[in-house]
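hey can u check if this looks right to u? its 466 residues, i copy pasted from the old doc so theres a chance i mangled smth
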Amino acid sequence: MKIGTMENLFSVLSREAGRFYDDVGELDVTPAVTPAEIRHHLQSRFDFNSPIPAEKLISEVAAVLGRWTLHVTHPRYFGLFNPSVLPITVAADALAALFNPQLAVWLHAPAANEIEGHVLRFLSSRIGFDPETSVAHFTSGGQEANMTAALAALTHHFPAVEEKGLRSLSGQPTLYVSDEGHHSFHKIAKATGLGRHAVRVVPTNEDLRVDVEALERAVVSDRREGLSPFMVVGTAGSTSAGVVDPLMGLAKLARKLEMWFHVDAAWGGSALLSERLRIHLAGIERADSVTWDAHKWLSVPLGAGMFFCRWPESTSKAFSVSASNYVPPGQEGTTDNYVTTMQWSRRFIGLKVFMALAEHGTDGYQKLIEHQAEMADLLREKLTASGWRVVNDTSLPVVCFLHPSIESGTMSTSEVVRRLNRRGRCWISEVCLSGGVKALRVCITSYRTESSDIDVLLNEVEAVLS
């Protein structure tokens, strides 16, 4: 069997990567394809009976992906939190794959573990945590980070759970999240055995931020009924509308009620790298734990979630395990990831974040983040000038909007989205906000989006409505 040399493979890969990066803005954002078409191509071309030369295989796979992918790295992809990726982060992922370090144990990957620790301490300080006394680690994404928070909070408030499980408790543990919060908490409740009834959904005000007074009433009522409230979740950059809950008010309430305060800043956390935007996350520094996804607004490839916590002993109790019969003893002055986190085998996730920060610096990253916010501000201005109505209130780059013809029932938001995305020049989504209001949603998720792309978007939505 012939195996392609590393030099030849990376030469072909470099050519394909450079071509795609340069040309993606000229491609249709949305592919016109059926499952049957892709399956037929794969079955006819890749039967695994006849080997394909590696260099040719790279080009063929790149062609398949280029032809049949919803291009989330396109400057006119205005959908969910999937960014254009910085070239240095693609190189970083390749290096991580090349050396393939196993970060479960410090001794297996000293350099990799220290690189991740270095960047996490820096980001901890941006949150407002003391990097020397808090704890942080990379995760597969926000779901895992939020679940880590729930398990740490459970162990913190109910120490018996560690040995005896949830059945040892006299009252049902409950956590509280707004109706604009992320649905990962419902999955977490099922996966942990808490059950979905443990997730208490709190209403939002007209501005789509959690109603703090309603939250307090819910906790007091649940305690009166014999339940055991243990965690309050604040959202910093909601998926639907990009709004930030009143974090300072939530922090004060959590302390008053003696509950764990978690901030789900999976997307909005990156605003902490901007001196102009970080003010909107005031209060996050008072959280017990924070979720922050680098792969949402720091322009790095999936997945690169992060979990930050003030209380190392809580995560240690939640995940501690002894495997001394086959895992080497720990290095003095270090902590092995497998005993303080949910994962065991662990990829070198943090290298792409480290290299992106090192290449661009905080000033460079601030410019990337603020540019996207400025593009959203420009969109809001142009929408308002053209007779559209912006229906969400946030300084972060998510814009939800409606047109009088939509509000009058001439055309539905789902039909506008369907027609616009089918044209292929842009991709937007429909969103249903609290209260049942459906709107068009645009998120500026690419650092490559320019004012000309905003103009194309506006022309497209106007063309669809005409």
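The longest helix spans residues 351-385.
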